[in-house]
Amino acid sequence: MALTKEEYLKINADLYDALMTQNDAKVVAICRKIPRGPLHTLTIHEDTVLHMATYHKRTDLALDLLAMVSVCDYHKLTWQNSGGNTILHETGTNNGTVKVAAEVLRMAPMLLNMTNKEGETALFYAARHGKSKPFRFIHDEVGRTTQGLDLRTFLRRDDRFTILHIAILSRNFKIAHELAVTYGELIGEKDADDMTALQLLATIKPEFRPESFFKRMIFKLIDSDVDDDNWMHTFSKKLRKQKHSCEWAMKISRLLIKEDNSWEKTESWTDRRGSKLHEYGKTTSINKANGHIGMVKHEPKIPLIAQEVTSHKPDTPLLLATIHDSTEIVKEILNMYPQAVEHVDKDGHNILHLAILHRRHKIIDIIEDMNYPLERLRGRLDKNFNTLLHMVGRKVDELKDDVKHPAEELKDDQRLYKRVEKLSTALDSMTRNSDQKTAQDVFAETNDKLRSEAKEWMCENAKNCSIVAVLIATVAFTSAYTIPGGTDDNGYPILKNKPMFLLFTLSDAISLSTALTSVILFLNIVTSSFQFKDFASSLFEKQLTALILLIASVAMMMVAFAATLILTISNEGKWTDVTLYGVSFFPVFVFLYEYIHEYMKIMKGFYWVIKSTMEKVVGVYHKIWDYKPHSLHPDPAGGSLYVGTRSPV
Fold this sequence. Notes:
Strand content: under 5%
Helix content: 55-70%
């Protein structure tokens, strides 16, 4: 007898509640009473009870439900939900349902070849979810029953997407490695967007090794190949999984780099010296519509949107890895194929152009270490005549892990400009791009608004810190004349022989002097001219020094407070002194704990200041002692004529 709508909804509600509360007995009992039993559609997405039990890792329940299906109803096990997934597809979502997959295939072998609405077989679906046990089981079944050209159904989707592509995008690197080894023909295959597996790997930025020193040490103690990790702590399981992913990401990247030859295909690299070195004469413009670049007078500039091509072939893996900051892939490609460093994209950008444009400092370091390739890359122009220096002035909007304040961002850009200026040729600083702008023009135009924001931020920060410093100086100055314990008739401190009194005096004096010095530096920042060059050096050196002094002043004020408290309430060595010491110095510990990360950043900045200062000093030293005059002419008599203030060495 057919169920009414009310009965149908009531049964679905009871079944769903029993499944969610893991009441297996109730699920089985309800399924015995309804006409379709375990093949009853339960959800609005047309999932059956078996679909739900399998998806939620209820292996025993799923096996009990399968036992309820009669032989004459085995063909009904091919039911697909609204997404086209069968019960066998659902077994690929977790590692605990291999027994269910084996039983389902025994009852309905045709499930192995069925695809969902995206053209994915159960094998493809298991690779998508990265579950190794059901993947290997289904793969063995496929290998046992299918050979030759019939394998294409299992390895490829309707949209040319291969099983290797999906395994890499799902970050299932071990399965991806197994697929690449077993089916080597998949390595060079491209999806609908002409992307190979290596190109996709370069875009997802896999983690090859942790940046944290502590995590690297832990990784050395963990065995990532352990199958049974039930005995491990949750934290250890997480680290084991991360190490496993890192190791297999490195293995698959090396294999793909070795076998994938898509790195050989690149745009042509023509030395484009059609740019101008001054602003006079005819105007340079680019006629991309006619496919040539030349000097055209009074030609209207084509809008940037019109110049962009709606679709283009993807860049080479090396350039994609540079754009997406996959430093390890860049290293591996250049180690295996150093000639790939000359790749150029559709806009004429080489790896250095892209590394500077996207602020990939580690990749710039790699290229700098390659002396000869650096000479090949440093003077190149893109299709719009932009040099490496022009790239510093351009920025790409992308989501960053750390959000910097405008002053720090401008500082980093200024330092990058100085760094790239050392790499570039002397001609690059004068070269004008297709918009008739030099690199300095582009940098100033792009960062003008940022400079205004940075100026406002630094002034506001300096003013607020000055107020704090003045308050601390006031307290420290007052404390110097109201010393703990008071003075005797002669004006000498009564507690001057106490060890803590010396600590109080020193900490109070240091707090006062550092606070006043920081005020002077903050006032100097407020009255600065805020030129672009100032953000790379003097402004931040002053701000860094002022912040260090202010933090030292706060710390010393806390120490002075603790010393005062101990001097006035001490119980002469009793056990209560331990509590008193703890309470007194507690603010110091909290202060250190809360600002430990800021201390590290400040110390790194302080290190950079000391390093740059030492480089300047060493540079001046060499200029003085290695001085050789320009007026050195050969002497007709066979000697030399020296004109200068020092004798030649």
